[in-house]
Amino acid sequence: MKHLQAARGKMSAGQYQEAFDLIVDQEVQSLSALLKKIECMVDIGFIIRDERILRYGLYLLEKHGSEVLEVEDLAPVYFLNLANQYINMVTLSSYNNEYFGYYEGTELIRAREFYEKALSYGNITGEIAVSVHLGLARALSIGGRGAEALEHYQAAVKLNPDLREALLEKAQLMIEYAGINSENSRIIMKEAWHLSFLTEEMAVRDAIDDQQELEIRGKIRELVPDRSFLESEEEYPQHSIVTNSEEEHRFTMFTLRHNLYLNLCGFCRKCDCAVGDQLRLRSSSLTIRTNQKKRFTSLAVCYSRLNELYRVGRYFLTREEAGGKPEDYTDPGDPKTGLTGFESGSIEYYFLREAYLHGWDLWDSVKDYLATYWDKEVRPEETLYQMLHSNGKIRDEWKKKSPSFHAVYDLFMDCFQGRRKYLKDTYLILKRPLKGGHSISFNAEDLKKRGIELYKIQRSVILYLGIMHERNEFQNQNWIFPRPLYNFFMSGKELKDK
User: Fold this and answer.
1) CA-to-CA distance for 267 and 155, rounded, in angstroms?
2) Any idea what the Cα angle at residue 377 is, between residues 374 and 378, rounded to 5°?
3) Partners of 330 in the beta sheet?
4) What is the largest CA-CA distance in the chain?
5) Using CA atoms, how far apart are residues 276 and 237, in angstroms rounded to an integer?
6) Residue 333 phi, psi dihedral angles, 5° rounding
7) ∠ CA(206), CA(210), CA(216), 5° rounding?
8) 435 phi and psi, to 5 degrees?
9) Rounded CA gap, 2 and 27, in Å?
10) Which is nearest to 317 in space by CA: 438, 428, 448?
11) What helix, strand, coil percent values describe the chain, rounded to 5?
């Protein structure tokens, strides 16, 4: 352990290269010493901006992962550290490439996966859970997926209401994404305004003077000139749901329970906005310029159609919960192929199957919207994948498009050939019956889970398409990415020398 102590002494004196030379070839005899060596490696690699050192530290951490995971309750913090250091890799690489977080960010993808892996453990503690939600929120934000990041900022704040950095970043994102919520943007701005004063009190208490609250209020004043509205202290309306029938109530509750409503305001739950599906393109959008009225009309038609198709599929998802007398159906197959002999199933399964097929076909409507938005000529038979790629690689004309477009691309590719490829495989299985005439390949519960997951992704896609329009991303090509930096940490009674 002496070489590790010496290395720490060098690091505290600012001699990071010398510290690395001391420990790089030294063998360690315990898990605790191994983790301390990796801690030094990854921190040195980032501080001296040497990607090779940071990558070597990551290699050691993953190579010895099985040893670390043998320690009880250490898995969440292990995956949190892995994710944090992959975010540091993104940060290093993005210094020389502004668009790293978009298409070259394999590390960013892995970081998100490790954060989600950490969340999957039931034994995750409050402090670690806060760090995971905060890290995942930042990773999503770097990749242009701010609408999803808001939900994780909210989760972090719920666990730790005094977390100033999470409150500030949440307020900044609320301001950015309020535009899509045209009916409720003022309410969202008002909450961000009040958050800025709350975090200012925290800053005074902790003797912090970074002026971030003043910057937030300055942005809000530019967007909401009515200062009296911002400063008023009236109560927020309480969240309530008014329905006209039992079926409508069941549909509404299903939509809310699974986070499938379209309204972006749903993350705050301080108003009635969470119930609605009020997404639409506004004629007052800055995107409309001279000779662009026809384009706006076409966009509005594409967007309205996409919203409507999404709601239809979402209705199919809820129909399977209708209950009542059990009914059977026989899938007739595709009359064009003359397929017969399909196995019978329940009417609930039929609705789930139709909902899933319908949900995957929404990608065709996404293709139509993107083609209209970017004025691209697309053949009717061309798929979304073909439109975005040439010989398996992303087309050059898409490389420096907007953050919201890249969020859509990220979500699509994750389903098409990424870690959620099973969603595409499910679609192909349901679309084409298996040999022997069997059309039922999943039990209803599994198919329902996959269907809900698919519609959550499509909800995010619809949000990003609207945000892309409302923020006028057709014109702006300059984007600033956050630069998070994480130190390695592994501590606690679990790390006794072995």
Assistant:
1) 9
2) 105
3) 344
4) 78
5) 15
6) 80, -170
7) 110
8) -60, 145
9) 12
10) 448
11) 65, 0, 35
As a whole number of angstroms, the distance between CA 332 and CA 326 comes to 19
Compare 111 and 30 and report the one with higher pLDDT.
Answer: 111
In terms of pTM, does the model score above 0.85? no
Task: Please state the φ and ψ torsions of residue 422, each to the nearest 5 degrees.
Answer: -60, -20
Tokens of 291: 């000779």
Q: Rounded CA gap, 234 and 317, in Å? A: 38
Cα 489 from Cα 494, distance rounded (Å): 13
The 10s digit of each residue's pLDDT in 330-385 is 555 544 444 444 455 677 888 898 999 999 999 999 999 999 888 888 888 899 99
> What DSSP assignment string belongs to 91-150?
HHHHTS-TTIIIII-HHHHHHHHHHHHHHT-TT--HHHHHHHHHHHHHHHHHTT-HHHHH
Residue 486 exposed, middle or buried by CB count within 10 Å (0-12, 13-18, 19+)? buried
Q: Which residues pair with 389 in a beta bridge?
A: 394
- Tokens 């109560």 map to which residue? 235
Q: How far is CA 208 from CA 120, 165, 216, 427, in A?
A: 35, 12, 16, 52
Count CB neighbours of 294 within 10 A. Answer: 8
